Amino acid sequence: MVKKIQKNGSDKKAAAQAFNSPLSGAIKDSAQQIWLAGLGAFSKAQEEGGKAFESLVKEGLSIQRKTQAVAEERISEATNKVSSMATDISSKASGQWDKLESIFEERVAKALNKLGVPSARDVDALIKRIDALNQHVQELGGKAPAKTAARKAAPAKKSASKPAAKNVAARPAARKTARKAATA
Questions:
Q1: What is the DSSP-derived secondary structure letter of residue 172?
Q2: Other C-beta atoms lying within 10 Å of the C-beta of residue 124
Q3: What b-and-e string marks burial along 51-87, b requiring 16 or more CB atoms within 10 Å of the CB?
Q4: Nearest to 183 by CA among 137, 151, 124
Q5: Under a CB-based contact definition with an 8 Å cutoff, are residues 142 and 150 in contact?
Q6: 165, 74, 153: which is closest to 116 by C-alpha?
Q7: pLDDT in tens, 29-67
């Protein structure tokens, strides 16, 4: 069984005497000194805290500037890389458009050829033949040939199907005009 210890008045008196002993005085003095040292450290931290804060702000600014410079450099490098990639893609796309255009032109020319529409080369060849015939006529007749209407009517660009047919049809009339001018 547990025995209950009773405290009597004599124990309280002994504790009070121990508290007033020289050891307890030393403890009180030591606690007082620790308290005063803490207050002094706090006061000193308040005085030097402003200076420390200002130096920390200066360090923070310099680090921020360095970080921004590095970030701007990285952004510049990335911009240059993206720009060069865009240029490469643009040149490749341009090449593809050129290929597509040439394929389209070839197919249109084949379709027009199947329909019997003369090409620009055909028209140029006919004009050369007319010029050669005119020169031959001049040599035989001894007179200078008149400028043919066919040469004036020759298209400068690639002609569409109907205008080219009209030019070919207009040549006999031009020959007649040239003959009349040569005989006159």
A1: H
A2: 13
A3: eeeeeeeeeeeeeeeeeeeeeeeeeeeeeeeeeeeee
A4: 137
A5: no
A6: 165
A7: 888 889 888 888 888 887 787 777 788 888 889 999 999
